[in-house]
Structures are given as structure tokens and as C-alpha cells.
UniProtKB/TrEMBL annotation:
Entry-linked InterPro entries: DNA-bd_HTH_TetR-type_CS (IPR023772), Homeodomain-like_sf (IPR009057), HTH-type_TetR-like_transc_reg (IPR050109), HTH_TetR (IPR001647)
DNA-binding feature ranges: 33-52
Ranges where the HTH tetR-type domain occurs: 10-70
Keywords: DNA-binding
Protein name (Swiss-Prot/TrEMBL): TetR/AcrR family transcriptional regulator
Species classification: Bacteria, Pseudomonadati, Pseudomonadota, Alphaproteobacteria, Sphingomonadales
Organism: Sphingosinicella xenopeptidilytica
Stored Pfam families: TetR_N
Gene3D superfamilies in alphabetical order: Tetracycline Repressor, domain 2 (1.10.357.10)
Highest taxon of source: Bacteria
Length: 193
């Protein structure tokens, strides 16, 4: 068997993670099988198990991989830049906005009843909130915005609006883009410029 270089191995792993996220968006966490992921990735089950010991390991790896933020992200100069950054994918998934929203909503819903997933998603949420709080604190300190509550309350409200609008769009048939635009309008009301 030929040896695989690290670039090939990294590309294979990324391909599996993207396929897993797409399947989670389509079938949910419980409904997704290794067979679904194998087919979507165009790989053998053996190849998938070479990288991941179980479906649970693969689901957690996909969650962590696609929620990893770049380090040392520059602080936006104003609220409009901050808001635009919220709507931008941090790591390309190859999924449409609606597919990505569906995958993330399925992951959050599954975390309510799956301990392994709850343990994995909690630090992702905490890290995201902490990073966003630093941005809001910097914007307040620079005089770019005024907020009614604390930076923590503001970022929790922003997260709640974004997640809530994603749920509403998924359940009502509204497009992900329309929901994002509506969420942006609501988020703008949280600050005074």
C-alpha cells in the first residue's frame, strides 16, 4: 500500500468532516450513519474508520473543526463590520447557508439529549461568547457603540437572536438569507451608534 503524505491525509479528513456536516444537516445527528457519510464523501467505510473510531468521534470532530475561529481576528472598526463578521462563515464548509444552519441546529438539538455532544458543544459556545464579548468591549471602549446592558448580556442577546432566527427560518420555510437579514435588523436595535 502506498504511503500517504500529510497533505493527502489532511484533505481526506477535511472531506470526511464536510460530508459528515452535510449529512447531519440533511438527516440529523441520529439519522446520519457512517454509510451516509461514506457515500457523501465518496470513500470506503474503512477509510473513514482510519480517521475516526466511531460516529460519535466524527460528529464531535466536525463540530469542533467547523466552529474553530481564526486566532488574532482583528477587532472590527465599527458595529456594521462586527455584524457583517457575524454573518460570515469562519471556516468554509462547502454547504449553503441553509444547509449549514440546518447542520448546526441539528447539532444543538442533539446536544440536549446526548451527553457526549453536550460536553463538546459547551466549550465551543463559551469560546464563541468570550470572543464576541471582547469585540463588543473593544467597540464600547473605542466609543463606537453604546449598549444598555453589559457586554456579556449583549453578546448573549446577539447569539439568541441569531439562533432563534435560524430555528424560525428552518421551521417556517423562510430562506436562510432572509432570516439573516431580519436578524441583522434586530441585532442593530441592541446598540446605539
Amino acid at each position: 500500500m502506498p504511503k500517504r503524505d500529510s497533505t493527502h491525509m489532511t484533505a481526506q479528513r477535511e472531506r470526511i468532516l464536510q460530508a459528515a456536516l452535510g449529512c447531519i444537516g440533511a438527516y440529523g445527528v441520529e439519522g446520519t450513519s457512517i454509510a451516509h457519510i461514506r457515500k457523501a464523501a465518496g470513500l470506503s467505510a474503512g477509510t473513514i474508520y482510519r480517521y475516526f473510531a466511531s460516529k460519535e468521534d466524527l460528529v464531535v470532530a466536525a463540530l469542533e473543526h467547523f466552529s474553530t475561529y481564526e486566532t488574532a481576528v482583528p477587532i472590527p472598526g465599527n458595529w456594521a463590520e462586527y455584524r457583517a463578521g457575524l454573518m460570515k462563515e469562519k471556516r468554509p464548509t462547502g454547504l449553503s447557508s441553509a444547509e449549514l444552519d440546518s447542520a448546526m441546529l441539528h447539532l444543538m438539538a442533539a446536544a440536549l439529549s446526548a451527553d457526549y455532544l453536550r460536553a463538546a458543544i459547551r466549550p465551543v459556545i463559551e469560546r464563541n461568547l468570550a470572543e464576541q464579548r471582547q469585540v463588543v468591549e473593544a467597540l464600547v471602549k473605542a466609543g463606537g457603540i453604546e449598549i444598555a446592558g453589559t457586554p456579556e448580556e449583549t453578546v448573549r442577546a446577539v447569539a439568541a437572536v441569531g439562533i432563534g432566527m435560524s430555528w424560525l427560518a428552518a421551521l417556517s420555510g423562510q430562506s436562510a438569507e432572509a432570516a439573516a437579514e431580519e436578524a441583522a435588523g434586530i441585532i442593530d436595535r441592541l446598540v446605539r451608534l
